[in-house]
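Here is one chain, start to finish.
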Amino acid sequence: MEHKSGFVNIVGNPNVGKSTLMNDLVGERISIITSKAQTTRHRITGIVNTPDYQIVFSDTPGVLTPKYKLQESMLNFSEGALVDADILLYVTDVVEDPAKNADFLEKVAKEKIPVILVINKIDLVKDQQQLVDLTDQWQKRLPNAEIFPISAKEHFNIDNLMARIVELLPVSPPFFGKDALTDKPARFFVTEIIREKILLNYDKEIPYSVEVIVEKFEEKAGAIHIMAVIYVERDSQKGIIIGHQGSKIKKVGTDARKDIEKFFGKSVFLELFVKVEPNWRNRENKLKSFGYIE
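Its structure:
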């Protein structure tokens, strides 16, 4: 049997479950998952290896109309995913209006590569007819797509979806080493875990005004020493992040450290600092240094 390899890019609107699906397909928690929109900001790669194939999954930010430069670069990541895929997974769910983001859908409809339309969250469907009607609506919008109803949360129909992806893969040698799980460096996952804890512990605008940069990542035999800076846009946000007598940031640090220890299988010493970087989401030089613009 010839070896198969390919790039499978996951696109769709915010909050339809793209990250949950990718983590399920990869079998590892690579993308952060919270119930807030715009959780994923970068394209994140997860790699599945077997002796017969290698699948390079790519989870992208949800497609939205950009309000500031950071969101423009997020949209570029999503549109870039239409260009360099062997297979495209367009993810929607049973709640979303099929007419949403028609411009992006038109681009997907013109794709020459195989497109799989994944209808997620079917565990929420009360009536089978609703699913039949929804499938018909989507088939009209993406006539060339194969449709898979799934529930990523319940792991329903994921194995069939995976089998179909493997069938569609092109014959090719692997693109990455067979022991690779992702193309992202260790530091990236530290920043994502800290950012996830910020999304879970703070409300309103705070999580969206925050960027996390790892300034020190020192690995020794049994332990890792990490120093990370949480950047915010205003002094008032700095106060909110720190909390009364440092209580809020201490909780973020404790929650993050536990997950980082799980991720690396080592004990972790984590130090967090907060700095103000005015209006960083609209400043090109800052977005470059934070890795959003190449």
